[in-house]
Amino acid sequence: MAEHPSSSVGGGASKEQLEEAFALFIEASKAIEAQQTQLQSEIQRLSNDLAQANQRLTDLLQALPTGVILVENGVIADQNLAAQTLVGLAIGQAWQTPASWLPTPMPGEYQTSTDSTARTVKVTQLSLAERQIVQIQDITDSLRLHIESQRQSKLASMGQMAASIAHQLRTPLATATLYAGNLGMPNLSPDKQKEALDRLRKQLASLETLTTQMLQFVRQRPQKTEMVSGQALLDEALAAIGPMCEKRNIGLRVQATGLQALVNVERPTMVAAMVAILENALQVSQDAGEIVLTGQSDGARLQFVVDDAGPGIPNEMMASLFEPFATSRINGTGLGLSIARNAVEAHRGEILASNRVEGGARFSISIPCIAEFS
Ligand SMILES: Nc1ncnc2c1ncn2[C@@H]1O[C@H](COP(=O)(O)OP(=O)(O)O)[C@@H](O)[C@H]1O
Ligand SMILES: [Mg+2]
Q1: Which residue, 182, 178, 203, is CA-closest to 191?
Q2: What does the longest C-alpha to C-alpha distance in the chain come to?
Q3: What residues are in contact with ligand 1 under a 6 Å CB criterion?
Q4: pLDDT, tens digit, for every residue of 225-251?
Q5: β-pairing, 251-257 with 290-297?
Q6: pTM over 0.70
């Protein structure tokens, strides 16, 4: 190997060469040292930035009105103030919704107690590998606002209703008065007497239906709810509508899947909503026609669909279908669907109507199921 004299510091190197190499070495070390100091201060700066960012995040998290809990291996690793206030668990304790919380019909929603201090909270859980972020939102106020706005719009429609009521009641009342007058006429044959009495009775019965329905329409949000399966609701609705179908010789085909799903409902109200839709389908069906009732659930929502083979919803009714007193039937009250809509919406569900391409109308009701929170 050829020797390179200038790069050698070995035996053959001169004193100058050695000094030069040493000077270079010192210079290089100084440069490295300077770089290291710079790096050090850079690291310090970054750490400060990080600490600041961390503090900002912590402040933000603490200031959040939503409770946030960090769960690691099932144990609370960290939480913000709102979480501690709402849930009352401490860091290090196992995470679970307190036993005193009562689930509401809405998935992940709880009532924190049964007394006047009760809050309604919504719990959502985000899983990241062995970590979970649990969010607890106090929705008491927004729920109250929602109910209040529902009440306001109900009051507004009651105003409209009061005007319609007078109009609705005037004719049947006048007719009933007339029949009652006829009854009092002297020398009335027993046949005529019976006829006037029958008419009067019919008139009074329809007035009773009208007032009952009006009362149903103005009723408040469901109070006494119970846990029932989709199948139980279906059976009850079928028991009510079955005889009417038989009387008119109209077939009722039932298709059911997943109806073991549970819902928390005011049972008679929900059944009445289903029956109102089935009654309408029956009214528009030709004798010997068929109605198809489909009940289904995917576990999240329960849905009932009623298909009829009638003439379909008249175009001019489409916009006002669910409004009180909107009717195209001579003997209709126009309250059936508005009561049904109230009932379904009070259960935070949805009621829809459409005309089918094959002809006939389709009405559907869907409400949220009870989801077990794990
Ligand atoms: N299955 C249906 N097919 C066609 N039209 C319907 C059907 N169901 C309801 N409608 C229309 O909606 C109107 C309102 O229905 P509803 O609120 O039950 O009151 P009512 O039955 O007393 O008329 C009916 O008069 C009718 O015009
Ligand atoms: Mg009706």
Answers
A1: 182
A2: 155
A3: 276, 280-281, 284, 308, 310, 312-314, 317, 321, 326-329, 332-338, 361
A4: 899 999 999 999 999 999 999 999 999
A5: parallel
A6: no
